[in-house]
Write a structure and sequence with these properties.
Blueprint (H helix, E strand, L loop, with lengths): L10 E5 L5 E6 H9 L3 E7 L2 E5 L1 H8 L2 H4 L6 E3 L4 E3 L3 E4 L14 H7 L16 E5 L14 E5 H7 L4 H4 L14 H6 L9 H4 L10
Parallel strand pairs: 1-7
Antiparallel strand pairs: 1-2, 3-4, 3-7, 5-6, 8-9
Length: about 210
């Protein structure tokens, strides 16, 4: 039904039937759920939350200038252009995912805002690395509290020493985030600002795909 396009990979927040954030999917999957009447679009505007099935969302998309108070991604079908919903709600799903945030390289970089935790500068990912604050050679393990993003220069300078031994200082103490840090980065943009209302009271657990 939809032409292949980069906007079909746009991120869409998924709520369960109880309006709790459970997942992030892409626009292609979101439209598939809408067409099969398994979900509805939740349109956030002027402090209100309006539900739309696929047909009413398609009709609303025809009034692009009238309804689009915040920019949307758009996809083109054979007959029309459709706004990519930012939030959808599953109509028959109540469960919540397991409360956990995966300890992996991407989430560490996201938690640390892609910023070296020693010099405070941002570098291309090719020049970033993961540092064990308490070195493995001295018994340090891999945990949220002992892993930080570091540029290759600072990591080499620190070597197999602790920050104190290397006379280096962390710009912030490493902690385990309560929600997926990738989501926190996206919330810093206007495009995903409408997600905030659904995330304020929920721990974020599902890794972006």
């Amino acid at each position: 039904m939809l032409n292949a396009a980069s906007n079909l990979n746009a991120h869409v927040l998924v709520l369960n039937r109880q309006w709790m954030a459970i997942h992030v999917t892409n626009a292609r999957r979101a439209f598939s759920l809408l067409v099969r009447d398994l979900a509805e679009v939740i349109h956030v505007g002027d402090g209100s939350y309006l539900g739309h099935d696929f047909e009413s969302w398609a009709e609303l998309s025809l009034e692009r200038d009238a309804f689009e108070t915040h920019p949307h991604d758009w996809v083109r079908t054979v007959r029309m252009e459709l706004a990519v919903p930012k939030v959808i709600r599953l109509l028959e799903y109540d469960r919540m995912p397991r409360q956990d945030v995966k300890l992996n390289r991407r989430n560490i970089f996201a938690r640390d805002h892609n910023q070296c935790q020693y010099c405070g500068q941002r570098f291309p990912l090719s020049e970033m690395s993961i540092d064990h604050v308490h070195p493995r050679s001295q018994g340090g393990g891999s945990s949220w509290q002992n892993l930080v993003a570091a540029c290759t220069g600072c990591n080499a300078r620190k070597g197999g020493r602790t920050p104190q031994q290397a006379r280096m200082h962390l710009i912030r103490p490493p902690v385990k985030p309560k929600r997926n840090p990738v989501i926190s980065l996206r919330l810093g943009t206007d495009k995903y600002a409408c997600w905030q209302a659904f995330l304020d009271h929920a721990y974020w657990t599902v890794e972006l795909k």
